[in-house]
UniProtKB/TrEMBL annotation:
Protein origin, superkingdom: Bacteria
Name of protein: Cystathionine beta-synthase
GO cellular component labels: cytoplasm
GO MF terms, alphabetically ordered: cystathionine beta-synthase activity; transferase activity, transferring alkyl or aryl (other than methyl) groups
Native source species: Thermoflexibacter ruber
Names of the cofactor(s): pyridoxal 5'-phosphate
Upper lineage: Bacteria, Pseudomonadati, Bacteroidota, Cytophagia, Cytophagales
Entry's Gene Ontology BP terms: cysteine biosynthetic process from serine; cysteine biosynthetic process via cystathionine
EC number: 4.2.1.22
Pathway membership, UniProt: Amino-acid biosynthesis; L-cysteine biosynthesis; L-cysteine from L-homocysteine and L-serine: step 1/2
Catalyzed chemical reaction(s): L-homocysteine + L-serine = L,L-cystathionine + H2O
Family of the protein in this entry: Belongs to the cysteine synthase/cystathionine beta-synthase family.
Length: 347
């Protein structure tokens, strides 16, 4: 019989899918690593499992323990799945800008969620970072994975994402593109790939409102770079230890709007119903290519971190898009539009 002993054994080994339409006119092969094939529908399942298993080995997490984390949702989902399989309780703190779906999904898999204000400093006692730390100090036998500074995060990608990409591309990869939030996906994978082939170009995708690009270019942590933005899961107002700046060749910033429109194009033109930051990753990758055209035999791999279901009330909703000035006209047809079009073409 062929079966997995529990859902956590299905994490990883996600497919590479060639992009065909949104890359029209571009030389080289552009491949998306589609992380929504993980059981929690995101790249973060990989690090959730690794952080838990490393904590178990170090004796930081004991039977009956509670896992407490500040998460934009995807790490929470991964932790919750692993916690269900292994018998731990989970409490997550989340910023209130996160989609309601993400909160509901975490509650569906048995986690407790504490919603905190988005627009406060990380040091503010109300921030989701601070609340997670406080709960960890108050709840006995609790473990705070701290995905930002816990190097098991990058290590998970060094051990899984990197080798997978290397094998899937038979070592032919020349460019690696990933959004940078905690930095784990970019840094761990980049370390593995650059150890195999040092001239692989690594492009970090940042967002307007985040400090990474400026920091990489100037070495200055500039508070003026920090302002609210809407895309979820990447860009930061802190410098997490998992961001290995020396392994990231350059950063490209992408706006909320360009990312949202590209995510919708990926769904409609490629059949990839993916999350908002996937739009950022692909838009940023194409910007890079505009500035540095690829050669015919170049192979670029872009990480697509999560699934579109978590954003149906946002970027996949025309009214929401219009309200945010991201769409001039409604693009999903009503029954009336369809009938009018049919009548028109029949005439
Ligand atoms: N996009 C989404 C939707 C995410 O949840 C995350 C994880 N925070 C990222 C991008 C960035 O990944 P990383 O934290 O590994 O840098």
């Amino acid at each position: 019989m062929k079966y997995y002993n529990s859902i956590i054994e299905t994490i990883g080994n996600t497919p590479l899918v060639k992009l065909n339409k949104v890359t029209k006119g571009v030389k080289g092969t552009i491949l998306a690593k589609v992380e929504y094939f993980n059981p929690g529908n995101s790249v973060k399942d990989r690090i959730a499992l690794k952080m838990i298993e490393d904590a178990e080995k170090k004796g930081l997490l004991k039977p009956g323990g509670t896992i407490i984390e500040g998460t934009s949702g995807n790490t929470g989902m991964g932790l919750a799945l692993a916690a269900v399989s292994k018998g731990y309780r989970c409490i997550f703190t989340m910023a209130d800008k996160q989609s309601k779906e993400k909160i509901d999904i975490l509650r569906a898999v048995g986690a407790e969620v504490v919603v905190c204000p988005t627009n406060v400093e990380p040091e503010d006692p109300r921030s989701y970072y601070s609340v997670a730390k406080r709960l960890n100090s108050e709840i006995p036998n609790s473990f705070y994975p701290n995905q930002y500074d816990n190097l098991s995060n990058s290590q998970a990608h060094y051990e899984t994402t990197g080798p997978e990409i290397w094998e899937q591309t038979e070592g032919k990869i020349t460019h690696y593109v990933a959004t940078v939030g905690t930095g784990g996906t970019m840094s761990g994978t980049a370390k593995y790939l650059k150890e195999r082939k040092p001239d692989i170009v690594t492009v970090g995708i940042d967002t307007y409102g985040s400090v990474f690009k400026k920091y990489k270019e100037t070495g200055i942590f500039d508070p003026n770079e920090i302002y609210p933005y809407l895309t979820e899961g990447f860009g930061e107002d802190i410098l997490p230890q998992n961001v290995a700046f020396d392994l990231i060749d350059l950063f490209i910033k992408v706006t909320d709007k360009d990312a949202a429109i590209m995510a919708r194009r990926l769904a409609r033109e490629e059949g990839l119903f993916v999350g908002w930051s996937c739009g950022s990753a692909v838009y940023g990758a194409l910007e890079y290519i505009k500035q540095h055209p690829l050669k015919e035999d170049d192979v670029m791999v872009i990480i697509l971190p999560d699934h579109g279901t978590r954003y149906i009330a946002k970027i996949y909703n025309d009214l929401w898009m219009k309200d945010h000035g991201f769409l001039e006209q409604r693009s999903f047809a009503t029954a009336k539009d369809i009938i009018a079009k049919r009548n028109g073409s029949a005439r």
